[in-house]
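Consider this record:
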Amino acid sequence: MKYLYLIPFLLLFSCGGDDDFTPPPVSGNGSSNDWLIPPSQVFDGGPGKDGIPSVDAPEFNDSDDPEFLSPGALVVGIVDNGVAKAYPHIILDWHEIVNDNIGDNNFAITYCPLTGTAVGWDRQVGNRTTTFGVSGKLYNTNLMPFDRETDSYWSQLRLDCVNGALAGEKINTVPIVETTWDTWRLSYPNSLLMNTNTGFSRNYGQYPYGDYKTNHNNIIFPVDNLDNRLPAKERALTVITEDASKVYSIEAFDQLKVIEDQVGGENIVVIGSKSQNFMVAYKTGDLSGFQPVIGELPIIAQDVTGQKISLTGEIVTGPRQGQQLEIIETIIGYYFAMAAFYPELEIYEE
């Protein structure tokens, strides 16, 4: 397992603050004409293809107090057909992709530690179900998964395939919620929790990238449009439509707060809490007058008629109980990364 020795070296080298370090561009999986992005802007992250191994057979515990995970640790949560699962950042930091399923719904949780972004997407590619791996390539310092069915390369934050047989195909995302383990287990006490039995030996109690999360000047690989309107590593939720994108900083939610807004012609509600460390957004449809609901997790808001809304957008009381607010595309991550991919990004201001 030469990779076990290679990774610490690469991490120390890349996070050491060497301003003269410029990673070499890669030629890609084919000629430059095959890429939907400039191949000169695709960089080798170091470990190589599958050098950071995806987890393809995740194991789970019941939501008892886990010894390896603190209450304030971030997790990526998903609820499907009444089944809740949580994937800890401390595992995703080392593996970046988890291929999983709930019943017949096959999905991948993709996470990029360098951009702080988690995206869930359908593993149904064309008429086949595939798994995704870590290619070792980066675009705008962001994860580029490859699918093992066609060996095509995908851009996590572009939400599409950028090279190979499936170039131009869009990612079909699945709804996820990113929050702390404490908030998630209070909301879904029967949730399953991915454990550290991954089949790989990693120090899951140690963050592998040094001061990267908090050092706004530590951006390892080149990015387009380095936007300084907000601090580079500020955690924010970006709402993405075909016509516009808008970012909401976690700092706007000093307490449980509801924002009714419009992005790209869509009426939306954004609900967040800095103390509970979550931000979610949904299309409002014909609902309006949302107010926060405190102390009733997973309920986080109610509309003007008193219909209550859960963390995952389910209407849990009233005449439309059991219905779901319509999903709008959202991604939580570091501000600099979202601005790199969405240069016309608006910033929410009160």
